[in-house]
Amino acid sequence: MKVLFINPPIEYAFSLRGTNRVWLQHDLAPRSES
Amino acid sequence: MSLSAFLKSKGYADIRLLNGQTPRGMTDEEILGAVREFQPDLVGFTVHSILYYNACRLAGRIKEEAPSAKVVFGGPHLTEFAIEAASQPAVDFAVFGEGEYTLHEVDRGDGGQARLEDVAGLAFKKNGEIIKNPARTFPSLSTPCPCPTIPLRLPPGPHPLRRRRAHRDHDHQPGLPLPLHLLPA
Lengths: 34, 185
Prior knowledge:
The structure holds 2 protein chains of 2 kinds. Chain A has 1 helix and 3 strands; from the N terminus they run E-E-E-H. By secondary structure, chain A is mostly beta strands. Chain A is rod-shaped and about 30 Å long. Classes of the chains: A mainly beta, B alpha/beta.
């Protein structure tokens, strides 16, 4: 039997009420070493 | 990884982990491509509340891609919302609480070797009704459970738990065009 486990991607972490700014997960995670 | 290790100890050989939470993320098409290539019999989702709608949407598309695959939801969200999750059309089984033994028993029950009604920690559909079985008692510390599987290949890019290098790199001086030892005196 073949089993596949998936961690679904996060599209956004949270949005701030009263603003149009949606914080992407990429905004929260470090992108590069430099 | 923990579930994978447990199932491997029970003789399941072909198990894959797909992590869509790398910094780059994964598109639906990449995930569906992996499903198309692997053709799994069982697809397990780790569901946190913030991932729930994403997971439902993906599960629906996976069902279109591989209708014979059973979709299982598990994870922290299911602790409170197992019945709601099991009522989703694309979800076959909702596992709440610790999932190792439950998942193994679900597979046996699905194969006709056990009754699904006897599997603790499981919610599922039967004749249009949602049945939620009693919770599984927490396994004692002496219950054998193998060490989690460590993926051999880490995803590309910086590890999400690793701090930025600049914070601990002594020769990096913010505001200077070059590291201090390379600047002319």
